[in-house]
Write a structure and sequence with these properties.
18 strands; seven-stranded antiparallel β-sheet; alpha+beta; 11 helices
Length: about 500
């Protein structure tokens, strides 16, 4: 395989072992090229996150303000999680490719019907995590004031999103995340993992640039050659990929960078059974204990709205011309309509243009889990074949008869109906009614976090010295962080 002009084009070398296997019929060239394209796309994502992680490491080492350091540490944690998720996805793809090429015995083969359910959107919003403070802390405002920076990571398959960072202390009764996060390629067997990360915000993060200053002083004292070696050893940003003799870069673990570090405080996993078009409470598994600096008194539950929209509920699954016999009318009277199978109905329009124009359909036939559909014998008065759709309304059975132009059309419509029923059986309650999902607005870089908490924080004097040189350095770092976060969020959403 060769990559040309930074594209995903793959070429099978002539005379190679792979070409011989393709000629023998053990591999299909189209499958190989498709798999190579997918591998290249995931590798590009990994390379992008590695670069972002490298930049976050450098920024974290240079930060001298608390808000800057917390945002940089959050980006570092998110990038590292994405890298691990992409690597796991790449490994699963490799294993699937190997299993596809392994010959199977007839006894090992699965069912002949290789039907797969449709994909769909899964959205989580209105995330609330209740806190359980002691009476002396919340009502009497006594004891040591403990503040933490928290955010959530949400992962579904290879998609990972993060929420905004929130500062939490005893003045808050709930941790609230207003983000609406949508996963666009979910299957009905999805597992949505929600992780809550916390970091104590009471430490002094102005020491991030101390190793660099120390190296500068020592380099001037030890001499030029020894000083260069010392500066190279103490230079932050060592999390860059290491050269591997011209091969692919080695992915090293995140190094220990001076500054704040986020820790997993709680987590849970949501699935299709948790989907409901309302606000629900879910159990939260808590990690750590009161001895940890990042500890927060969680109640042990999480509240959110988890909604799903299968593609069979939002997209046109089948469309074409049919003839419909009016119920109770003349058996020889047929009306030609343009039918569209979507959601829980078969919409019948007088013209095909009415679909795009959002014109009210002339007839709507219910298609749900209780609907019965069968193909009848060939109509002697027609070239095609009849399809009977039966529904019960108030204890009475109502049957609509459709007629197709040919036997091939009948087969296509019947296959579309069976696939539609299969999709509804897999997505279950999500196909009863269309759940509403409010698409999130384009995300902007997080501004500097305003002060939150009690009156103590509003009155506390600043401990950072107001030096002109330090102020210029902080402004430069802030600009660099804003540029990094702007690129980060624009690529993520």
């Amino acid at each position: 395989m060769f990559c040309r002009n930074q594209t995903t084009r793959a070429t099978v070398a002539r005379g190679s072992a792979l070409e011989m296997e393709i000629r023998r019929g053990k591999f299909r060239k189209s499958d190989f090229l498709h798999a190579s394209s997918q591998d290249s796309d995931i590798q590009k994502k990994i390379d992008h996150e590695i670069r972002m992680r490298d930049g976050a490491c450098k920024l974290l080492a240079a930060c001298s303000q608390r808000d800057q350091a917390l945002e940089a540490a959050k980006s570092l944690q998110t990038c590292s999680t994405r890298i691990m998720a992409y690597m796991s996805e790449l490994q699963r793809m490799k294993e699937a490719q190997v299993m596809q090429n392994v010959p199977r015995r007839s006894s090992d083969a699965g069912p002949m019907d290789g039907r797969l359910p449709c994909k769909g959107k899964v959205a989580i919003s209105d995330l609330r995590i209740p806190l359980m403070w002691k009476d002396t802390e919340y009502f009497k405002n006594k004891g040591e004031l403990h503040r933490c920076a928290v955010f959530c990571l949400l992962q579904l398959g290879g998609e990972i999103f993060d929420t905004d960072m929130v500062m939490v202390d005893r003045t808050l009764t709930d941790i609230c995340f207003d983000n609406t996060i949508v996963f666009n390629e979910a299957s009905p067997g999805f597992e949505l993992r929600v992780e809550l990360y916390s970091c104590c915000s009471e430490d002094d993060y102005s020491a991030g640039s101390t190793p660099r200053k120390l190296a500068s002083k020592l380099s001037s004292s030890l001499g030029r050659s020894a000083g260069k070696k010392l500066r190279a050893a103490m230079e932050p940003g060592a999390c860059s990929p290491v050269s591997n003799g011209g091969a692919a870069p080695l992915l090293l673990p995140v190094p220990s960078v001076p500054g704040p570090k986020y820790h997993l405080l709680a987590h849970t996993t949501l699935s299709l059974s948790h989907v409901q078009d309302s606000f629900r409470t879910h159990d939260f598994t808590i990690s750590g204990n009161e001895e940890c600096s990042y500890w927060l008194p969680l109640y042990g539950s999480m509240c959110c709205r988890l909604a799903a929209q299968p593609h069979c509920m939002t997209q046109q699954m089948m469309g074409g011309w049919l003839k419909v016999k009016q119920c109770g009318g003349d058996p020889q009277t047929w009306t030609k309509v343009y039918a569209v199978l979507k959601a829980t109905s078969l919409f019948c329009y007088q013209r095909q243009e009415d679909v795009e124009a959002n014109v009210e359909p002339a007839l709507t036939i219910g298609i749900n889990k209780e609907t019965r559909i069968r193909a009848s014998e060939k109509d002697p008065h027609s070239k095609g074949q009849n399809i009977c759709i039966s529904n019960r309304y108030g204890g009475e059975e109502v049957t609509h008869t459709l007629n197709t132009e040919s036997r091939e059309d009948t087969h296509r419509w019947m296959e579309a109906f069976w696939q539609h029923f299969y999709d509804m059986s897999q997505w279950r309650q999500c196909c009863d009614d269309l759940m509403k999902i409010e698409l999130p607005s384009p995300r902007k870089p997080a501004p500097v976090t305003p002060k939150q908490g009690s009156l103590y924080h509003e009155m506390a004097p600043l401990s950072t010295p107001s030096c002109e040189g330090l102020l210029l350095q902080d402004n430069a770092v802030s600009a660099e962080i804003r540029a990094l976060l702007s690129s980060y969020y624009s690529d993520s959403y």
